[in-house]
Amino acid sequence: MTQGKADDDSAYSAREVMDTVSEMSKLLETGLDSGTLAIAVKLCELGVNPEALASVIQELRREMAAYNAGGGDSTT
């Protein structure tokens, strides 16, 4: 197999994995967009504990909801 073919196969496999992760995310109604999912997957690949990452995401959502409920503007 040539290097170009291997790279193509690797890229295709990565897209397949992200498509599957994205579909699972939608089924589980996580509310995470594809960019956020890609970051989460990369962090897990780098060794971040998935449960700890999930806790951080949940805490950030709570903080953002509290901020927005207090009249904060999340666009600035």
UniProtKB/TrEMBL annotation:
Keywords: Cytoplasm, Cytoskeleton. One of its GO terms (cellular component) is spindle. The keyword Cytoplasm applies. GO terms for biological process: gamma-tubulin complex localization; microtubule nucleation by interphase microtubule organizing center; mitotic spindle assembly. It is found in: Cytoplasm, Cytoskeleton, Microtubule organizing center. Coiled coil: none annotated. InterPro entries: MZT1. Belongs to the MOZART1 family. This is Mitotic-spindle organizing protein 1. It comes from Patiria miniata (Bat star).
